[in-house]
Every structure is written in structure tokens, then in C-alpha cells.
Amino acid sequence: MGDRLETCFERLRTQGRSGLFPFVTAGDPDLGFTRELLPLMTEAGADGFEIGVPFSDPLADGPTIQRSSMRSLTGGTRLSGVLEMVGEVRADIPDTPLVLMTYYNPIIAMGLSEFVRGASQVGADAVIVPDLPPEEAGALLGIMKDYPLEPVFMLAPTSTQERIELVNDVGGGFIYYVGQMGVTGARDALDSDLGATLGRINRVKNRPVLVGFGIKTPEQAAEVAGYADGVIVGSALIDVMEAEASREDKMRAACDYIASLREGLDRSKTVS
Amino acid sequence: MSEMVSRGRFGRFGGRYVPETLMPALEELEVAYQEARSDPAYHEELAYYLREFVGRPTPLYLAERLSDHLGVLRVYLKREDLCHTGAHKINNTLGQVLLARRLGKTRIIAETGAGQHGVATATAAALFGLDCDIYMGEEDIGRQSLNVFRMRLLGARVIPVTSGSKTLKDATNETLRDWTASVRTTHYIIGSVVGPHPFPEMIRECQSVIGREARAQILEAEGRLPDACVACVGGGSNSIGLFHPFVNDEDVELIGVEAGGRGLDTEEHGASLTAGRVGVLHGCETFLLYDDDGQIIPAHSVSAGLDYPGVGPEHAHLKDSGRARYVTVEDHDALKAFQMLSVLEGIIPAFESAHAISWLDRLAGETREAGGMKTVVLCLSGRGDKDVHQAEGLLTEMLDDEEVR
Ligand SMILES: Cc1ncc(COP(=O)(O)O)c(C=O)c1O
């Protein structure tokens, strides 16, 4: 299963391009905005999306995504509403992979089965739960295996060889490599060990690797893409939208920014 | 295929729900902790500092006027308020700083609510010359300014936390965020029996010195075990420290007292065991306060140390299995007990401990109804100096109105 993700990575491979997966917090500032924004960013060059479900205590996230989550929660976003929105936007971007990213407690509150059923019904392709390492994921994996929903796990600069193999074995979809120690947030410089750790992962991986956390400029995106199958850009995108006041300006700024990342990624591939 | 097992479970509770970046550090910590546990040198070193620095063993004091006042209870107070720094928290911070040194970590971080754990952490860090950063919610910084100054005096940096509800849960988030970035050089001393494995077990082991001493002391004083052990429950460390050595003594009733805040019919309380649901926060599966959408509800209590929307997973298990009973005491009643113990025994308790004291009134009622007498060991987890300023505002009216003497 996981057709859309597989097809997407297959297409990228044959085109010799890197994947660009923006992260947005669903419902920041409201769900209608997110619903409109995703198709526009697809046109601007995004290959797929991570859709963040806001949580009151996002302990893997830095100030940008904390603020974004708060805005979304203050606006009344609920997990059930996010799923509905995914279902609606699915009609506009039928082939684009949509990956839900949520902390575990909202899933528990909804009920594991109901969440998995709901997420696959609306056409989500994968789920990432940042506070659910493989060791604790047994219950959720047991339910997900009967649905076309891929469990994506993370690896980090501290991950041992054993853990790299574990995530490679039990995960689905792609591997999310956390490119920085610490929480999400745009950084001015990338981790100097990035190439080395990704090398260790690339030697064992049997699925694509996307790198997230800390990526801001087209140059950084291009550098990271040299070691991986694509990039995830979240905080920097949200920063760009935060700087604008009106909805139209936020959307325009987001699309311009995505287009600039797309260009950076594509240029680096044609050069090399 | 690689092994995939959940570790550190108490019944169905506990576990290790953290971002991948922290998983290797927790594995490393678990190994170091197991090595330390079976190393006599670690125990000797810890025992030395507990005796010479903390002032252990703490007395088990028969509170005679309090017992007379209650009529049917014979109350022994386990005097953790007499520990250096004024609360049980130092038992944990010393044990963990010794571990951090074994791990070669040079920096210590911690969250704090009331400031008691922050002070105890800053103290242990000062003792061994380690760098120390303490995260504290802005709300709590306002409530506990004296402890903020104490931490700084001890050489620690106090970092205000302005996210979320600006209290203990947010300080815990922020400390975990720091740790994901700094884990290679830094040890995180969690302040209660919460967090990912091995913290709940490790901290329980550090705090069990309370119950081990109390058990020997009551046997010495009474020639038998108590009928009940009573302690307040925030994250649950002083209570599990008292309870754990009595868990297999089935005739000893274990009673944990949670913060009832402004009442369980409001959302303003800290009673995660009594009124919460099972969920995942700060790395463990346990009873929590959250809404229908899984969003954490900020706790409320007059005492900053009980102001936490979760509770240690071992307590969740003790509740589930029926081995311990969990009850609540509201702000107002805790304040009355704060005053009562001061007047009757010349001991000003921490607001947190005052919750446990207050429950004695109701335990006395139950006991009278059943027509008996009970011997009780109560953990007086801390002294009330930190709360005197806040109490002045809250209690002056009450002192004019009511007559306890
Ligand atoms: C004196 C005192 N008692 C109790 C507590 C509550 O914590 P725990 O339930 O972990 O003992 C605190 C927390 O700050 C405290 O300072």
C-alpha cells in the first residue's frame, strides 16, 4: 500500500529530482486557510505535505511551531476537523501524498482505531507521531497494518546502528531524518555531521529518506538533498507566513518561498 | 529483525514516549543506572551525602497534640521538612547528580514548579561544581520569588518559561526541549516520579529512603506496622517514596492525597488520578487531565508543587490494582490544615504537605465511624517557609475569623 507515496518517490527518482515536503500546522490561522493553501503550494512545486495536528504541549517543537499550534488551538481546531479538511483537500490534489503529524495524546483521545480508520478514509497516506518511538508503537501498528496508512518513524543524529535498523524494519513510507539535535526551528547553519549520519542510514535503508528540522534557505535544501531523497521544511515556511498580515499575502509569500526552494533543489540536481 | 519491546512498565502504565533524539540517551541512562544500582561504591557515596549533607535519617515524630485533637488517630510525621533545603526533593537530586557524574555529564538541567526541586537541584549541582540551568514557568516565578533567588544564590541560572500555561507542565516541556539539543553533555534531573523510563523507577529508588527509614522507625516505636500511610501526590515522588517499602505489607493502607483545587466540579484542580483519564504526556502513559480532543488541561492548586496535570505511572498502577487509595483535598481545607499544624505542633508545613494533613480529619471521621483507633505515618514532605508569604495574604482573614486553639 502507500501508493501515492510510492508513486511520488518513483516519479522523483525517474526525473532525477529531490522531494519537497512542506510542513504546515492545520488550522493556523483556520482550517479554511490550510485547505486553500495546500493546492497552491502544490502548484508552486511541493511534492507532498506534512499536516501538523496542533497539540497543547508540543515538546519536539521550537517557538515557531509552538506559536503556530497555539494560534490553531485558539481558533478551535480539533483533530476531527483536521481529518475533515484532509478529505476536502484530497479532491483538489488527488495524487499528492498527505502525511499526518500528530502527538500521541490526541490519537488516544479519539481512540486508536477510530483515528486510523478516519485518517485512511479521508485519504491520508501516512502518520508520524513524534513522541511515539517504535518500541511504544505496537498498539498503533497493529491497527494500521490493516489500513493503507504508512507508519513513518524518525531517526536522529544520536541514533545508534541498532536503532537505524529498527526504524528501517518496522517503519513504512519513508524515514524521517531529524537533521539537527533539538527541536524544530529554522537554523542558519546545518549540522556538520549531516553527511556522515545520513551515510550510515543510506547504507541500510530500504525506503526513501527525507530530512527535516532546521532547513531554511534554498542553498541548505540543496545541500541536504545531496545526501537524501528530499527535504521537509516547516518552521521557516511558517516564519515566512507569520511575517505577513493578510491571508492573501501569507499565501503568496508561502508559494513564493516554496517556489524558491523548488528552484534551489532543481538547480543543484542539474548541476551535479 | 531488531528487538522492539516497551520498557519500564508498571502494569500497563509508564513506558518511554519521547522523540527519537532522546531514545539513545535513555538507553544509556538505564545502563548507567543499573550499573550504579549494583555498585556498592555508589550506595556508599550516596549514603555518605544523605547522612552528612542532607541530615538523614529524618525523625519519625509522634505528633501528640495533633493526635489528641483528632482523637482516634496516632499520627507519626516523617519529617522530610527537616532535610537540607527543606523538602524531600534533595533525596532525588543527590542520587541523580552522582549518576550524572558517573555518566561524565557536566551540565544539569531541571524543571521546577514550587521551586523546591529547583533549589534541591541547584544545591546538588553546587556541591559538585556542575553547571545548572533551571526552567520555571513565569507564573510560578511570581508565586515563589524567594526560591528563585535561592537558586540564583546557589549559582544556577533560572530560565523563565513563557509558553502555554507558564507553569510546571510548560517548564517540563521546555526542559525536555533543551535536553533534546544538549543530551550529549547534559543530564536532566526530573523532579518527580514522572517522565520516560528509567526516570520513574530511578527516582522512586532515590525517594524510597523515606519509607525504608519510616518502616524501621515505626517498628521500633510501636513494635508493629502502621494501619495507614498518608502522603500528598503531585507528580508522586514523596508519596511513592513512603509507599514503596510498604507495598507488600498488605494490611497497611496507602492513601495518596491529590490537589482538589477549587473543587472537582470545576476544571481547576490537580487530581489526575481521581478525575483524569489515561493518556501520554512527558514521556509516560499515565492518568492525565485532558479534554475530549486530547489537549492537556492546565492543573490548578494553591500549592505550586501539586499543580501538575499528570502523575507518576507507578501510582496509576497502584490505583488500577486497588493497592492504594487516592483522595482529594481542596485549597481551602489545605490552608486550614496549614494553620492547624502550625498551631498544634509548632511545625509550619509546606502547602503540599498540608493537603495530606487535612485528609487526617476525614480519616479520623472514617475511623470513628468504624469504631477503632489507627496508627498513621504521614509524610511531611516539606517545610512551609516558602509558602509563608502567600499564606499571609490568604490566611490573615481566616486567623481573625476562626479559632483553632
Ligand atoms: C514540599 C513538597 N511536597 C510535595 C511536592 C509534590 O511533589 P511529589 O508528589 O513528587 O512529592 C512538592 C513539589 O514541589 C514539594 O515541594
Reported for the largest beta sheet of chain A, the result is: 9 strands, parallel
Which stretches of chain A are poorly predicted, pLDDT < 50 over at least 5 residues?
A: none
Give the cofactors and ligands.
pyridoxal-5'-phosphate
- What's the arrangement of strands in the largest beta sheet of chain A? 5-4-3-2-1-9-8-7-6
Q: Please state the oligomeric state of the protein chains shown.
A: heterodimer
Helix content of chain B: 40-55%
Biggest beta-sheet profile of chain B: 6 strands, mixed
Description:
With 272 residues, chain A is an alpha/beta fold. Chain A is 51% helix and 13% strand. Chain A has a nine-stranded parallel beta sheet with strand order 5-4-3-2-1-9-8-7-6. The longest helix of chain A is centred in the C-terminal third of the chain and has 25 residues. Chain A is globular and about 45 Å long. By secondary structure, chain B is an alpha/beta fold. In chain B, strands 3-4-14-9-10-13 form a six-stranded mixed beta sheet, sandwiched between helices. In chain B, strand 11 and strand 12 form a beta hairpin. In chain B, helix 2 crosses helix 4 and helix 9 crosses helix 11. Chain B starts with 8 loop residues before the first strand and ends with a helix. The relative contact order of chain B is 0.15. Chains A and B meet through helix 3, helix 5, strand 6 and helix 8 of A and helix 1, helix 8 and strand 11 of B. Bound molecules: pyridoxal-5'-phosphate. The site of pyridoxal-5'-phosphate has 21 residues of chain B, from helix 5, helix 11 and helix 15.
Layout of helices and strands, plus pairs?
The complex is a heterodimer of chains A (272) and B (405).
Chain A: H1 3-15, E1 19-25, H2 31-44, E2 49-52, H3 63-74, H4 79-92, E3 98-101, H5 104-110, H6 112-121, E4 126-128, H7 138-144, E5 150-152, E6 154-155, H8 161-170, E7 175-178, H9 194-204, E8 209-212, H10 218-225, E9 230-233, H11 235-242, H12 247-271
Parallel strand pairs in A: 1-2, 1-9, 2-3, 3-4, 4-5, 6-7, 7-8, 8-9
Helix pairs in contact in A: 2-4, 2-12, 5-6, 10-12, 11-12
Chain B: E1 9-10, E2 13-14, H1 23-37, H2 40-54, E3 60-62, H3 64-70, E4 73-79, H4 89-102, E5 107-112, H5 116-128, E6 131-137, H6 138-143, H7 145-153, E7 157-161, H8 168-182, E8 186-188, H9 199-207, H10 209-222, E9 228-232, H11 237-243, E10 253-261, H12 272-275, E11 277-281, E12 284-288, H13 313-320, E13 324-330, H14 331-345, H15 351-370, E14 374-380, H16 388-401
Parallel strand pairs in B: 4-14, 5-6, 5-8, 6-7, 9-10, 9-14, 10-13
Antiparallel strand pairs in B: 1-2, 3-4, 11-12
The complex binds pyridoxal-5'-phosphate.
